[in-house]
């Protein structure tokens, strides 16, 4: 009989690496489990008192530690995420390996951005959500045949991301097209375009 496994994942607040480990459902019901980071500086604890699970998670977002009490079905079935009470971000994922790995990758990106913002002492973007949506829309436009071109005839371009805009720069003539990325209106305007043309220096 194949033994069912559950994967636990979190982001180490000390070294910043993603930590993942699988435990069998049988082991989780029989005894406490510990998932430790390779750096030895953080560990996730899972304890079962016969009725519910007590999970202590090191938080890679705020640097603290969070404790969650969960019923067995939340831990042993489907996928679940535990949140950081400080930032309202998810800081721990439990489920099948693929799901946990995907969410952990996204969490590592979020944590890196938070860290950069703290280092800079300001928000990286005027509105993070709008910026992500604008970048996603630009990716869609770029994926179409000749989606982003320059009027000089080139379709080679680079992208510079700023606080409230994205600059598309023609690699051939150096011309620039600024795409505002700070408000809902900016996003709506961009969504109207199937293609974008950089006004070249031809």
Kindly describe this structure.
With 202 residues, the chain is of the alpha+beta class. The chain folds into two domains: 5-120, no CATH class; 128-198, no CATH class. It has five helices and 13 strands. The strands form four sheets. Strands 2-1-8-7 form a four-stranded antiparallel sheet. Strands 3-4-5-6 form a four-stranded antiparallel sheet. A hairpin with a 6-residue loop joins strand 5 (53-58) and strand 6 (65-70). The chain is elongated. The termini are far apart. The mean pLDDT is 89.
Coarse structural class:
alpha+beta
* Helix proportion range: 25-40%
Relative strand content: 25-35%
Q: How is the biggest beta sheet arranged?
A: 4 strands, antiparallel
Main attributes?
29% helix
Short structural description:
The chain is an alpha+beta fold.
How are the SSEs ordered, and which strands pair?
Blueprint: E1 5-11, E2 18-24, H1 25-30, E3 33-36, E4 43-48, E5 53-58, E6 65-70, H2 72-76, E7 80-83, E8 90-95, H3 97-120, H4 128-143, E9 148-150, E10 157-161, E11 165-170, E12 176-180, H5 184-191, E13 196-198
Parallel strand pairs: 9-13
Antiparallel strand pairs: 1-2, 1-8, 3-4, 4-5, 5-6, 7-8, 10-11, 11-12
């Amino acid at each position: 009989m194949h033994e069912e496994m559950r994967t636990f994942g979190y982001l180490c607040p000390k070294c910043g690496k993603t930590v993942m480990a699988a435990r069998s459902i049988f082991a989780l019901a029989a005894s406490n489990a510990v998932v430790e980071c390779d750096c030895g500086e953080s560990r996730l604890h899972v304890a079962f008192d016969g009725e519910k699970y007590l999970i202590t998670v090191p938080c890679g977002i705020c640097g603290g530690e969070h404790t969650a009490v969960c019923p067995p079905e939340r831990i042993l079935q489907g996928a679940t995420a535990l949140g950081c009470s400080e930032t309202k971000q998810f800081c721990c994922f439990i489920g099948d390996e693929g799901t946990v790995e995907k969410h952990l990758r996204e969490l590592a990106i979020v944590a890196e951005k938070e860290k950069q913002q703290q280092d800079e002492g300001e928000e990286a973007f005027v509105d993070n959500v709008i910026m992500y949506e604008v970048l996603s829309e630009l990716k869609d436009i770029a994926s179409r045949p000749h989606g982003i071109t320059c009027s000089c005839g080139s379709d080679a371009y680079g992208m510079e991301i700023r606080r409230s805009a994205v600059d598309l720069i023609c690699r051939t003539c150096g011309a620039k097209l600024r795409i505002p990325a700070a408000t809902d209106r900016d996003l709506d305007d961009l969504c109207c375009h199937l293609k974008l043309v950089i006004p070249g220096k031809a």
